[in-house]
Amino acid sequence: MTVLVTGAAGFIGFHTAKRLGEDGHQVVGIDNLNDYYDPALKRARLEELASVPGFRFQQMDIVDKPALMALFAEHRFSEVVHLAAQAGVRYSLDSPDVYGQSNLVGFLNVLEACRHHRPEHLIYASSSSVYGANSKLPFSVEDPVEQPVSLYAATKRANELLAHSYCHLYGIKASGLRFFTVYGPWGRPDMALFKFTDAMLKGQPIDIYNQGELARDFTYIDDIVESIARLRTRPPEEGCNRLFNIGRGEPVALMDFVQCLETALGMKAQRNYLPMQAGDVLKTWADTRALQEWIDFRPQVSVEAGVGRFVEWYRGFYGI
Questions:
Q1: Is 209 a catalytic residue?
Q2: Are β-strands 121-127 and 174-179 bridged in parallel, bridged antiparallel, or unpaired?
Q3: Phi-psi category of 211—alpha, beta or left, where left has phi over 0 and alpha has psi -120 to 50?
Q4: pTM confidence score
Q5: Sheet holding 26-31, edge to edge
Q6: Which one of 21, 128, 220, 290 has the lowest number of neighbouring Cβ atoms within 10 Å?
Q7: Quick check: 224 and 15 in contact, CB under 8 A?
Q8: Active-site residue, from 36, 152, 220, 314
């Protein structure tokens, strides 16, 4: 098997490429190594991947359609795991054009490449943010998702609709994964766990939005990767675009999450309480029944264990 992993220098892409390579597959990873966050962390991930048997990296932007089409023609990928995207809800408020290019034009290019080169399975990243202003909990893949509250969420819902159209028209087999607040070692510096850890170790306050009245279905990275590894061998029928929630199925209050981090670090956080951030939602909670029925698996790493593993990695990586 030769598998393409887009966004291979990113958080989820790195872990996925590593797992697939260690499982014995030939993995081609691409990434544009943009500076949305420190490219040095992305390069450090690639250094780790360099020792994985069968892994090859090529710097490439999915917006570059000719380069992407040439890559597909060269390798004839059996599967595509598309994880490249411009991430972040809050950044989309400031830089909407970046999201239009990467998340819309880039994804369309991936679909076009799959249309012409016919991999056996396209797995692509969506997001729990597509549920937007929905108030029914837990969030189910059967729920309507017509109320995105951020541009990022709107681009991810657009990805799902584009995939549905291409699957219907061209017989592509696709699985869209709605990730719920992924965290763990090698995580993104723009996400809460990384930011909180950095601030606390520097003796700085942490910013807590909506006075702490938020809850998230935090999902540990190993559970995300296990889900992807199992899903890749279970494509849907031809012409079908299946959607799955990938979450632990247990919302955790933000302040409980902070307490887990305080325990792992052995220190108390200074707390800077702020109003609700534009584009945020109050609570996320994944209904994972569709995932369980399809691959007989549900994420299971507890927040206490996952936060502890992140802190252990962070201290080792930064020598603290």
A1: no
A2: parallel
A3: left
A4: 0.97
A5: 55-59, 26-31, 2-6, 79-82, 121-127, 174-179, 241-246
A6: 290
A7: yes
A8: 152
Residue type, 316: G
Token reading at 116: 């012409």
Pair type for strands 55-59 and 26-31: parallel
Please provide the size of the chain in residues. Answer: 320
Buried b / exposed e along 91-122 (16+ C-beta atoms within 10 A):
bbeeeeebbbebbbebbbbbbbbbeebebebb
Q: Which amino acid is at 78?
A: S
Q: Which segments of 211-302 does DSSP mark as H helices, in order?
A: 221-231, 254-265, 289-295
Please list the alpha-helical segments (H only) found in the chain: 11-22, 39-49, 65-75, 96-99, 106-117, 151-170, 192-201, 221-231, 254-265, 289-295, 303-318
DSSP for residue 54 = T
Residue given tokens 């797992």 in the structure block: 19
Tell me the backbone φ, ψ of residue 250, rounded to 5 degrees.
-150, 105
Mean pLDDT by 10 residues, the chain (320 residues): 96 98 98 96 98 97 98 97 94 92 98 98 98 95 95 97 98 98 97 98 97 97 98 95 98 98 98 92 96 97 98 97
For residue 24, give the DSSP letter: T
Interatomic CA distance for residues 152 and 148, integer angstroms: 9
Q: 65, exposed or middle or buried, with CB in 10 Å at 0-12, 13-18, 19+?
A: middle
The residues near 205 (Cβ < 8 Å, ≥ 6 apart) are 199, 269, 270, 271, 272
Residue 184 CB neighbour total at 10 angstroms: 23
Residue 154: φ, ψ to 5°: -65, -40
Pairing of strands 219-220, 55-59: unpaired
| Environment class of 72 (CB within 10 Å of its CB; exposed 0-12, middle 13-18, buried 19+) | buried
- Whole-number Cα distances in Å, 112 to 118, 163, 165, 190: 10, 10, 12, 31
